[in-house]
């Protein structure tokens, strides 16, 4: 039987060790402890992370520090603050639903913004932010940074979206109707959907889509 240091009852930061628990498969053989946080939540933590000070709360400490930094600059609770939090989460938190479309594909937030929320807020205000705009990456293959971001309306962001992973036709704005065996072309702007017709081939449907793009999005190019 593997030996381990009994941490029951000891306190590490905001965490008090309750009892030893079964380790997850990936941590098999490494002592894992159930801890009670001062905020009331519980958390399973590896003993080595407790002893070395790597984990000091259930996560509430980091959240409080981020909130405090934002309060100092007057943005806490604002739409801009939420944009910042969502941006960081989808790029750096594997537990977030959108992580697979961002962080897992190598899309990150630059260190300047991650380490200093005020730098992001200052950039946003100095570059035309208002509550009717959303943040957009100029080059969709690169991350969030002052050089690769801008504020745009929702129409432009929708226009710049990459091909959806659910798309089976291989063309943006074209879907395959299994019931009819035909390809359907469509386009939308400002939440208004426009059906462009039904075609025998994906190429024909895409030509209709391109024609509609030139007409509908000419002011965005």
Plain-language structure description:
The protein has 221 residues and is of the alpha+beta class. It is 31% helix and 22% strand. It contains seven helices and nine strands. It has helices at 47-51, 60-72, 79-92, 111-115, 117-126, 154-160, 202-216; strands at residues 11-12, 15-21, 32-37, 42-46, 134-137, 149-152, 174-177, 182-189, 192-199. The strands form three sheets. A four-stranded antiparallel beta sheet has the order 1-2-3-4. A three-stranded antiparallel beta sheet has the order 7-8-9. Strand 8 (182-189) and strand 9 (192-199) form a beta hairpin. The chain starts with 10 loop residues before the first strand and ends in a 5-residue tail after the last helix.
User: CA-to-CA gap between the ends?
Assistant: 67 Å
What order do the strands of the largest sheet run in, or round the barrel if closed?
1-2-3-4
Low-pLDDT runs of 5+ residues are: none
What is the number of helical segments per DSSP (H or I, 4+ residues)? 7
- Mean residue pLDDT: 83
Number of E-type strands: 9
Structural class: alpha+beta
Globally, the shape reads: elongated
Q: What is the percentage of strand-forming residues?
A: 15-25%
Biggest sheet, open or closed, and with what strands and sense?
Answer: 4 strands, antiparallel
Q: Tell me roughly what share of residues is in helical segments.
A: 25-40%
Order of helices and strands: EEEEHHHHHEEHEEEH
What's the gyration radius in Å?
Answer: 24 Å
